[in-house]
Design a protein that fits this description.
With about 300 residues, this protein is α/β, with parallel strands linked by helices. It has two domains: about 160 residues, 5'-nuclease (Rossmann fold, 3-Layer(aba) Sandwich), CATH 3.40.50; about 90 residues, Orthogonal Bundle (Arc Repressor Mutant, subunit A), CATH 1.10.10. The chain has ten helices and eight strands. It has a six-stranded parallel sheet. A two-stranded antiparallel sheet has the order 7-8. A hairpin with a 2-residue loop joins strand 7 and strand 8. Helix 8 crosses helix 9. The longest helix is centred in the first third of the chain and has 48 residues. The radius of gyration is 30 Å and the shape is elongated. The N and C termini lie far apart (about 95 Å). This is NYN domain-containing protein. It holds the Pfam family NYN. It comes from Sulfoacidibacillus thermotolerans (Acidibacillus sulfuroxidans). GO terms for molecular function: RNA nuclease activity.
Length: about 300
């Protein structure tokens, strides 16, 4: 009799265990289905959000950052490296409702006809001839005002895309999040502020250097010193430059174009030439006033071995 009760008890335990296992399997399966449905709905919501896209490009900021650091023109001749062509392809021509670029176009070297052919809405922000940083701030303000006005005047815009190279867009991006908009960001990793990560204010973010396939290989300033010396000598030898001054900014920009290097690298080249005492600055007066003029030190014998290479 005891043996029968033991056997009956053991059978019941196995049945209870099997029932609990079945219930656990059902719960796990239900959770998997629920997760899959949630992911599908989220994906659908994100996809629907990108049906009506407005793109705002802080072109002052992006242009100077990419050109000064990487010598990469945002309006690159290669469509795979061209900011505007890539964005049209990425979001789709049928989904983009607005595509604006903000800059002081008297300061940036931009081909306006090229931009207009790409159907870019150009917003010229006059910075009164101020420095690059001040011009950037002027564009930031104008862009933010336009984006906010758009959120009220055109409620059908569901996705706001901000293209920038610093963290000044955080206030307008935060405001768009509060308004229930889908926000996406294109940024430059080494140009964003360290104390506040701008990527926290976007649903999705993309590194511009990767997106545009920018050449980020390091440039050694000492590799360009001989050519820089040749450039300065040739510049002063030109009859058209006899009454002109080769100022620091003119020399930096000229070397950047001549050597096809970033402006930052050109500045490092000039610094090495100064430290090696191969160039000097003098004040010269012409019809435009008195300005700095950079010339070669003719009393110094220029040899490759003597040029400092540590930077």
């Amino acid at each position: 009799m005891k043996e029968e009760r033991a056997t009956s008890s053991g059978g019941k335990s196995r049945e209870d265990w099997d029932q609990r296992s079945d219930e656990l399997a059902v719960r796990k399966f239900s959770q998997v289905i629920a997760n899959a449905v949630e992911q599908a709905l989220n994906h659908s919501a994100r996809k629907n959000a990108k049906d009506n896209v407005a793109i705002f490009v802080d072109y002052d900021n992006v242009y100077w950052t990419l050109m000064n650091r990487y010598r990469h023109d945002p309006d690159h001749e290669d469509i795979e490296k061209n900011l505007f062509e890539r964005l049209w392809t990425f979001y789709g021509m049928d989904n983009i409702r607005m595509f604006k670029a903000y800059a002081d176009f008297e300061q940036v070297d931009a081909n306006l006809t090229s931009l207009q052919k790409k159907r870019i809405q150009i917003r010229h922000v006059y910075a009164n001839g101020k420095s690059e940083d001040k011009a950037k701030n002027a564009s930031d303000i104008e862009l933010s005002i336009d984006a906010m006005e758009t959120s009220y005047s055109d409620p059908n815009i569901t996705c706001y895309v901000f293209v920038t190279a610093d963290s000044d867009m955080i206030p307008i991006m935060s405001r768009m999040l509060y308004r229930g908009k889908h926000v996406e960001l294109f940024y430059v990793e080494d140009a964003i502020a360290k104390h506040t990560d701008i990527r926290n204010y976007a649903h999705e973010s993309y590194d511009l250097l990767e997106f545009l396939r920018v050449d980020v290989s390091p440039k050694n300033p000492s590799d360009f010193l001989e050519e820089a010396i040749d450039y300065i000598a040739e510049w002063h030898a030109q009859p058209a430059n006899k009454t002109k001054n080769l100022g620091p900014k003119w020399l930096r920009d000229g070397l950047a174009d001549y050597l096809a290097i970033p402006s930052n690298t050109a500045s490092q080249v000039i610094d090495l030439l100064h430290r090696g005492n191969y160039i000097r600055e003098e004040l010269r007066t012409n019809e435009y006033g008195t300005h700095k003029n950079i010339v070669l030190n003719t009393d110094v014998d220029v040899t490759r071995e003597q040029i400092p290479t540590n930077f």
